[in-house]
Amino acid sequence: MVLLLILSVLLLKEDVRGSAQSSERRVVAHMPGDIIIGALFSVHHQPTVDKVHERKCGAVREQYGIQRVEAMLHTLERINSDPTLLPNITLGCEIRDSCWHSAVALEQSIEFIRDSLISSEEEEGLVRCVDGSSSSFRSKKPIVGVIGPGSSSVAIQVQNLLQLFNIPQIAYSATSMDLSDKTLFKYFMRVVPSDAQQARAMVDIVKRYNWTYVSAVHTEGNYGESGMEAFKDMSAKEGICIAHSYKIYSNAGEQSFDKLLKKLTSHLPKARVVACFCEGMTVRGLLMAMRRLGLAGEFLLLGSDGWADRYDVTDGYQREAVGGITIKLQSPDVKWFDDYYLKLRPETNHRNPWFQEFWQHRFQCRLEGFPQENSKYNKTCDSSLTLKTHHVQDSKMGFVINAIYSMAYGLHNMQMSLCPGYAGLCDAMKPIDGRKLLESLMKTNFTGVSGDMILFDENGDSPGRYEIMNFKEMGKDYFDYINVGSWDNGELKMDDDEVWSKKSNIIRSVCSEPCEKGQIKVIRKGEVSCCWTCTPCKENEYVFDEYTCKACQLGSWPTDDLTGCDLIPVQYLRWGDPEPIAAVVFACLGLLATLFVTVVFIIYRDTPVVKSSSRELCYIILAGICLGYLCTFCLIAKPKQIYCYLQRIGIGLSPAMSYSALVTKTNRIARILAGSKKKICTKKPRFMSACAQLVIAFILICIQLGIIVALFIMEPPDIMHDYPSIREVYLICNTTNLGVVTPLGYNGLLILSCTFYAFKTRNVPANFNEAKYIAFTMYTTCIIWLAFVPIYFGSNYKIITMCFSVSLSATVALGCMFVPKVYIILAKPERNVRSAFTTSTVVRMHVGDGKSSSAASRSSSLVNLWKRRGSSGETLRYKDRRLAQHKSEIECFTPKGSMGNGGRATMSSSNGKSVTWAQNEKSSRGQHLWQRLSIHINKKENPNQTAVIKPFPKSTESRGLGAGAGAGGSAGGMGATGGA
Fold first, then answer.
1. Region Disordered: which residues (predicted)?
2. Region label for 209, one of left (φ > 0), alpha (ψ between -120 and 50) or beta (otherwise)
3. Counting C-beta atoms within 10 Å of the first and last residue's C-beta, which end of the chain has fewer, N or C?
């Protein structure tokens, strides 16, 4: 199993190397010892965005890199020289560069584990040569623990790997709250407090200056994300509002930082304070973007310990950073380290493999003759150069040293427990068990380099103590960090006079001002009550409380002071309004016209023009028209229950009366004409009498009445309030769409039926001109109601629309059907005679038997010829030839000599019927025309049944018509209605 793990790690290492062939060769610092401690320091800056895939690290770093490497080396020297700490045991180290980048740190951690595993196998005698003898190869000693790395995100990645092999890890600046979870990071410890305490310190500062509305920025990664989450949670509990929270990579490009700054400016001038839970390079990116965008002085940055008092963050951009307040872990400078560090020279410092590179970078010169000579620098480094120039100690130096001492004291306690009374490493400690070492480390407590007690809680965290720093301009072009306060376990102390020279200079960063009249505080989703937007109530709402607008009930409106509601005056159509006046005038004129027509029809009820119009049905139509006009008054009157009943009855019934009678009339005409076109005489159509027509019309009307009554039961009419808009209240009847559509739908069916029959009878002979008037009435009515439907259902003027639609329909029926008759009665009495309303060129039938003789059958073609009579030229000559042909055909059925004087002939058939015709000679264009042809079909059982074909020339029309009327057997003959 162990060999399998070794193989897996080696393969992983080779894979990493293979995937990074372009990456630079990693340099390692070694210090020999009995026990080796690993360390990960960010000797170089992290790779830039375009070099991430190559894992090519950036420039060398002094404070986060070289100083920490030297602190590790010098601290181990001090420990080894202390006879009371790990006596007779020498601590060594292996220092690797993490470049503040997860991938590089993992690569270096794999090297730690590889060496540890191989050393473990050697201790157990599992490493042998091929011939079976013991191997003389001795690898490096195993790593018992790791110090670092600095970044929380990187530390999490490294811990996920180290804990698989029980290697304890002590961090000196990884403060993420996630690392406190021992279920996930069992072998992780740190000498710095969790970010939860730092977030608490930042919230306390925000509260102190009443900054209730701030923006938030954090570095992408575990450090920034967990810290910002803690800050936002605590802010919400304290009533502090976050305008918006943004995240960004610390090595992001200029465009990303510029875009972020533009977003921050969108919250100005309210959110002037920006809480930045960021790594140092993220803050520097923000400062650079401020300069590019000219935003210096627009924001006050409140930074976390990732910024602290680092000069590399503000170098060159001090003007943009002025006024910034930062949180710094309480860690006084370590004097003995400066005494050691400032004496270092590249000529004598050989154990730090990066020192020469750093020296050249620090002084921008070239070390001639040295292995790491950098030819890009033209100036040669001279011996007068010293590190004392502009020296600033790493702000976390004390924590680095405390982490190293923690590992030493943990090993010391372990040695005292496993090797009592023994100086040095006993067999019980070989190899060192990581689990036992972790237990010993958790119990460690000692006095740190700053004089504070170093100990660990159950999560492996240390107590929190912070200093509050303020970056100020101390003089002309001179800027520095000033200690203006402290935070120790929940207690904040601030020197306000040092931060703000005057109280008026205190930056104001508040969420909202008090709201004006008619406005409420609207709290944004996810934010607390301190942060609101003043939003005016809607026009129909009043201010219920400072957070709530309450809508007035329908029919009421807010008062002037917007503290309550008053009732809205109810509106309804009044007789004096323009639209009702127009509708009433129109209806009144229509009523007068209808009454006038009715009186005329009653007075002249026995005249042919009235009798031929089926006067009984006309009276029903006139009653429907009158009722339609009366509907206008019910519709416009102030709504009451009785009027609502009348409206529903009138609107449905008035069209039904008119169109039921019209359907009956048009259906009668259509049936008569259909029978007249048949070659064989049939029985008389049924239900053709006036009484039958009335019954049919009343049945159709009763159907509509039934629909109206059913709707009364389903939806009893009553008054109600209608709200076409929130500021309008109308008193109307409670007629629903169903109550309107159902009666109108039935009326529409009647209209369509009328239109259908009117269309079928549109080409009847001249005397049937009433059918044409009916057709025109129906076409116009269809147009009116097609226009009515969208206007009624798509507008708020339903009552007026209904008034005019009903009145227009009534007017069309009155004008098209009755005005022409009244005109004849009053203005053209000479046309009001029976001959004008009887059959002229149509067959009249009263034949009960459907059989016919062959002669009679052939004679039907004569009728068609007479229908086309009146043509001239070729047509007349054609007719004469056809008549002569039919004459010869008829003679074929007649014995010779049967035609007597006068040209009359009679033919008898075997079925008891006879055919008689007469011929009259008349010279016209040299042709013989048939002037009269009578065919008598006699049956033995009823000799009175006849069929008469009577085509007359215009000169003899009046006499022929009179005779035909007498034979019709019905008052008014066929006339305009086609009665026979």
1. 941-980
2. alpha
3. N
Question: For residue 558, is it left (φ>0), alpha (ψ between -120 and 50) or beta?
Answer: beta
* Length, in residues, of the chain: 980
**What local confidence, expressed as pLDDT, does residue 375 receive?**
81
CATH architecture of 2-126+137-192: 3-Layer(aba) Sandwich (3.40)
pLDDT at 892: 40
At residue 202, the 3 state secondary structure works out as helix
Which residue stretches of the chain have pLDDT < 70? 1-25, 49-53, 116, 118-140, 504, 526-528, 531, 674-685, 762-771, 835-980
Q: How many helices (H) and strands (E) does the chain have?
A: 27, 30
Q: Would you state the pLDDT for residue 680?
A: 57
| Residue that the structure tokens 């309008």 belong to | 728
Domain limits, the chain: 2-126+137-192, 195-335+465-505, 579-673+685-832, 854-933
Cβ atoms within 10 Å, residue 940: 8
Pick the CATH number of 579-673+685-832 from 1.20.1070.10, 1.10.287.470, 1.10.150.130, 3.40.1110.10: 1.20.1070.10
Distance of alpha carbon 282 from alpha carbon 287, whole angstroms: 9
pLDDT at res. 684: 65
Residue with tokens 């210096």: 296
Predicted local confidence at residue 527, as pLDDT = 62
Give the span between the Cα atoms of 198 and 490, in whole angstroms: 10
The pLDDT assigned to 248 comes to 93
* The token pair that represents 557 in the structure block: 């409106």
**In this predicted structure, what is the pLDDT of residue 530?**
72
* CA dist list (Å): 447 to 27, 444, 502, 528: 34, 10, 41, 43
Residue 120 has a pLDDT of 54
